[in-house]
Structure formats: C-alpha cells, structure tokens
Write a structure and sequence with these properties.
The structure is a single chain. By secondary structure, the protein is an alpha/beta fold. It folds into 2 domains: 150 residues, Rossmann fold (3-Layer(aba) Sandwich), CATH 3.40.50; 64 residues, no CATH class. The model has no long low-confidence stretch (mean pLDDT 91).
C-alpha cells in the first residue's frame, strides 16, 4: 500500500500523515528527509522511487508526505512508465490525499526560491481533507482515521485475532479456520519465517502470501519470526 499526502500546510500535513502511518504500521518519509533538490519534480521522483522499491522489497506499506505544489511534481510522482514490473493498469499511488487546510499559495524552498502553488484538479487526488470548523472533525486523530475508514486500510488499533502458522502450504483447512475466526473479529494472519528450516518448509514468504491471497484477496498479513511458542 502506497499513500501520498500533499499540500501547502506542511505542519498539518506532516502531523496527519505521521498519525496515519502510526495507526496503520506503515513506514513514513517526508520530502524534507531527502537531500536538497533544486526542483520539486526531483523530490517527487525520489519519493516515487522510494515508494516503489520499499513496498516491493519489504511487502509493507509506505506513507509519503510532501508539498507536491505543481502539476508537474504531482505527475512526476505518479509516472511509473519506467518500471517494467508494474502493470500499466496499476493505480499509483494507491491513495492520494490532498491536505487542503491553508490559503497559502507559495513558499520559499531551501535555495531561497519562491515556489508557487498550482491548484490540483479532481483527478489528481482521491481524498481531500479541509477545515470544517468542527473541533472533533478537525482533530488530528479524526483526520487520520477518516482516510482509514474511507479506504478500509489495515487499522492496528481495534482488537483482532492473530492466526499464526507456517502455512507450508496454506490449505483448505486453514481457510476454513480463518472463516470461523473472522466471524468473531478481524483476523490477522502471521506467517512464520521458516523456509528451509526443514525438508517440509519449501515455500518462500511470497509464495505463501500468494496462496493466502487467492482465497482472501483482502487478507491482513504480517511476517513473523519462526514462532514456536507464545508465552
């Protein structure tokens, strides 16, 4: 899962994106975490590359936050034409959130250059956060949760059941157990990292994950050490 937050209100955008990342157990990166760039489009390209390779290699979620002040910078972030392993039909990022909470139309970058804001059109974002004037709706936790609720992303706060196993392979019996557990509460599937430990442990983590997703396309999956006992 790749989630992009953008907008001119740097503090509010940063606070919301960090709160969202913490609640979804995602890695978080700001454009200001990167080396200085003379062009906003360069920041966008760096963030795009980090997003793609982090999620590809770590099978995890990432939240990126930056100004993305111009159409060029927003287009550069979404340009995945050079990544052959990504389908042309893939949506990138998975969710784009415009934090529209300031009337500020320009800012001074690290080189002292004035950067002008270009208003995005509706095709450039999926979700928009604004100032409503309601203390509850404008509170940081509510704003972060509003994105989770809208897109049903993995929320780590509610009580959940952890189903742990090697799943070498994932079987019909495992699927049936999952369905029974999910009738009580949401289920997280924890895959033990055990490939090669015995002659029976032949499947890689990605192969096990693929088998699970065939049965449960929206499964919540985490990777665990080779847990043999819970104390």
């Amino acid at each position: 899962m790749i989630v992009q937050f953008f907008g001119m209100d740097e503090k509010t955008r940063t606070d919301i994106s960090i709160a969202y990342a913490e609640r979804t157990n995602s890695w978080h990166v700001l454009d200001t975490d990167l080396p200085m760039a003379e062009l906003q489009a360069q920041y966008a390209r760096w963030l795009r590359t980090i997003s793609i390779f982090f999620t590809k290699d770590y099978n995890s979620s990432i939240v990126v936050s930056g100004y993305f002040p111009t159409k060029e910078s927003r287009d550069q972030y979404k340009d995945i034409s050079g990544y052959m392993h990504l389908s042309e039909t893939n949506k990138f990022p998975d969710i784009s959130v415009w934090v529209d909470t300031t009337d500020k139309k320009e800012f001074i970058d690290k080189f002292g250059k004035t950067i002008k804001w270009e208003e995005p059109n509706e095709k450039e974002y999926d979700f928009r956060i604004t100032n409503t004037g309601n203390e509850y709706l404008d509170a940081l936790p509510t704003r972060a949760f509003s994105v989770i609720k809208e897109y049903k992303t993995f929320d780590w706060k509610p009580e959940q059941t952890l189903m742990i196993g090697k799943f070498q392979p994932w079987t019909k019996e495992d699927f049936q157990k999952y369905k029974e557990l999910s009738e009580i509460r949401d289920v997280v599937i924890g895959i033990n990292h055990c490939m090669g430990m015995t002659d029976d442990d032949k499947l890689s983590l990605s192969q096990v994950k693929e088998l699970i997703l065939k049965d449960i396309p929206d499964a919540k999956i985490i990777i665990l050490p080779n847990i043999v006992e819970v104390a």
